[in-house]
Every structure is written in structure tokens, then in C-alpha cells.
What we know:
By secondary structure, the protein is of the alpha+beta class. It folds into three domains: 2-82, no CATH class; 105-287, Endonuclease Chain A (Endonuclease, Chain A), CATH 3.30.870; 290-506, Nucleoside Triphosphate Pyrophosphohydrolase (Alpha-Beta Complex), CATH 3.90.79.10. It contains 17 helices and 23 strands. Strands 10, 11, 12, 13, 14, 15, 16, 17, 18, 19, 20, 21, 22 and 23 form a 14-stranded mixed sheet that branches. The termini are far apart. The relative contact order is 0.08.
Amino acid sequence: MSESRGTADHANNHALDQPKRIGSLTFAILIGAAGSLLASAYLASVAVGVILTALLVAIGVIASVLPRVRLAVFGWMRRMMNDESLSALRQPVVADTLRTVELDTGIRTIYRNFSDARTAILDHMSQSRRVDIFVQIGTTVGVQEPFLDALTSLPQMREDVNVRVLKAGLDSPYLSELRAMTRGKDYQVWRDDIRAGDNHLANLQETADENQWFQYRHHREGYLWRFFIFDDHAFLQPYYRQSDNAQHAPVYELAMSTTSNGQTTALDFSLARVLEAYFDQKWDEYRPTTIHWEEEARTADSIAVVAVLELGRSQRRNTPRRYVLVVASSKLSNPDGPPPFYYFGFPGGQVSPDESVVAALHRELQEELGVTEQDYEILSAKDTHFFTGGTYEGKSTIEGLDPKPMLLFNRTKGSSRQIILAFKGRLKDDVRALPSSEQGLSIVMTEGTMVDSLRNKITIALLQKSPPNQVFNRKHQQFFPDVVLRPQDVTSAVISLLDNRVDSRNR
């Protein structure tokens, strides 16, 4: 009995002595800080808070010396922190603070990551007339099924829906190979994701051509954020992590209006308004420009046309897309010079002063491939891609020229300026494009082979050994099978455009 009582007394003494280890000064400061918090929560008065803080610091000093007073203070603090009345007082303070934040910034909800916010974003998307989306690579809206399916089904939910998507393209300086290396990313994965997103969004835009409910454009902005803007809400996720940002960065739900006592008030200072203005500005900034063909042609010293002819679908069957090209000129170097190569390009030539662009295109195809107007169709492009030399300038709409070319290439030689127009066409089924009198060699190359020709050495012998590529020689015309093939400048520009949409499965 005495032994157990002695043990209990020892435990009590140990409990009395334990807080002393904190130290007199530290304990006093802790008590004072607690007093400040209690004064702020209960009384919201600075003067009273200062007096209560000083009083509790004094109590803390005394309690640090007298163990029983110290234990009494600890017990009182514990009861106060667990008091339901404190929680009841704290709740309206928190509610008022959140209300103030919403009124000043529009922030209504903060989600832990994109997964937590996905359902709310999709719900607002399905109910909104306005849907503006700003993304980078675009995997979220262009590849992932929940968002891609939601975008596709929007016209069935609302007839007046208007969707605009701004996403980065392969020409974005913030998605370059160097950026991928510095961020520890696989650049090829980036490219494949961008292509896949572009393919899906382009298909969606084609199906929406009749009522123009869906449009998308490429931007070249920094890797700062992605956001979604709807009729009365916006969702913003900043990019501040180099990897797995979607699952670690918060998503802010921003309101554009608030309702109180049955009255709706617009939040003019909401961050969503800033995103609205930013998106509209960038949408106009990356708008395809309009070019008047007559004025453009008047400033050129010469005009040339080429046809990017795709083989008919029955000839292609399950093989990748294939295009008809010709060896336009050759360069065989001397034994001591650089390795020899052939230039190749799409069929075409100069426009005569007395003929139209379309007439020159028909004439060149008949002269070089022996095909007539009945053997193919020329397709009109929605937008024309502009190149100045090897630099891509963006997309534009050409007025006064029909059909519209897929590419306009500006080339300057000395003081003269030449315009080369590339038109997309398709051979009809069972039509073969063989070299005629002007050409000694025509070749059929897949998109993948053309892309590889920009990066690797492609030879005639390699083409002959790699179906479905084909080589057609004119009789009595000698070509060296091991000589490297190199695309002409305008052909390289066309290939770079095709490369943006070549599916990785066909490469």
C-alpha cells in the first residue's frame, strides 16, 4: 500500500516537475500568446488584448515558478480550447472571413488538386453557354475521355453553346526540346500528346463547321496556368511544379457573382474577370489574319504552285497516307566534295503571266505526272499556313483565291520575291501518277518517310526496299539508287505541317 502510494506521489511530483523543463521565459511567452488569441477571438479588441496579454505573461512567470499554479493554468487553457462556446464564436468569424475573400477576389472554393475539381468543372461545362478553355499541351481536353466526350456532347445539351480552346502547339517556345530536357520530360511524349490533341480538336472543329460552335487556336504563352471559364464561374490551376502538377497544385473556383438574401450581385473585382479579359485578348492576338490575294500577288515578282497529292483511298487501304513527289533537280558533287544528293519536291511550277493559279496547277500536273483534271480533286483549305523562308509565321485566311491553298511560302532571292502556293489534292481511285516527259522519276512516300527525310538520310534504294513507298522510273533514265534524297525548302515546310498531325502509330 505504502509502496503504491509512494509510486503515485512520485508520479505526481514528476507531473509537477515536467512543465518546468520548458523554462520560465518560454512558458511565459506561450501563455502570453494564448492570451492574445483568446482576446482576439472573444473580444476582437486590440487594447484589451494587450492588457490581457501582459496579465497572462505575468501569470506565466508566476506559474513557471509555482508548479501547482502552473498545472491550474494548463487545465484552464485546455478547457478553454475545448469549449464549445469558443467554436461557436469562431465559426461566424471564419464565415465572415471567407465571405470577405469571395467578395474581394471571387474565390469560392479551393480544391486540393485537379482530380478533386474535375466533377465540378464538367458540371459547369455541361450547363454553360460560354466555354473558354486555356491549356498548354492540351492532353486534358484533347485526349482524356471525360473532357473530350463532354466537349463532343455539348451541342446536344445546349443549342447556343460556344466553345473556344486556346492550346499550345509544336511551335511554342515553352514546349521545346530544350525545355523538356531541363524539366526532365520526354520530348517525344510531348510531341505525341500535342499531335493527338490537335487531331481530336481539328476533327471536332471540322464537324462544327456548319454552325461554328467549336473553335480552337494555338498560342505561344508561358507555362503559367490552365483555366476554364463558364457563364458565371471560372476554374484556375497554376503551374508551379515541374512534374505531376495536376495532382499537387490547388484549383481555385472563382465566382463572377454572389447571392445574398435573395439578391445577386456581380463581383467586378473577381479574378475570373481578369481571366476573361486575358482570354479575349489572347484569342484576338492569335486570330488568323486575313490576306487579300490580289494585293499579295501584286507585290510578288513571281508566283509558283505545287500540288500536295495524296493517293486515292482504295490504293491506300490500311497503309499510311502516301503522297506523290518528283525529283525536281539533282546535285551530284565531285569525289572530293560533300556527299551527293537529289532534290525532291511536290509536282508544280511557275505561273505564267497570262494564266490563273488554278490553270497553272492543272497544266503542271499534266506535264509532270500525265494526269488530267478528271483524275484528281483539289481541296480548299480552311486556313492557310504562312512561311517566310524556313520560319513559320502562323495561319491566315486568304480572300480572293479559290480553292484556298494549305500553305503560302515567301521566298526571297536577292531583290526578288517569289510566292509559292501549295494546294492539297487527292488522286481518284485507281489513278497512277507516273513520270512524264519533264520528269525522270516520281516517288510515292508515306508521311512518316517524308518526316524521316528531314532527319535522316533517305535514298532511292531505301524507298524501293520499304513498301508502301514506291519509285517509278521513266524509261532510259538513269538514277543512282544510293544517292541521298533531300526535300526542297517549300517541301520541307509542307512536311513540317504534315508532321504536326502524323499519328505515332503510322510512323
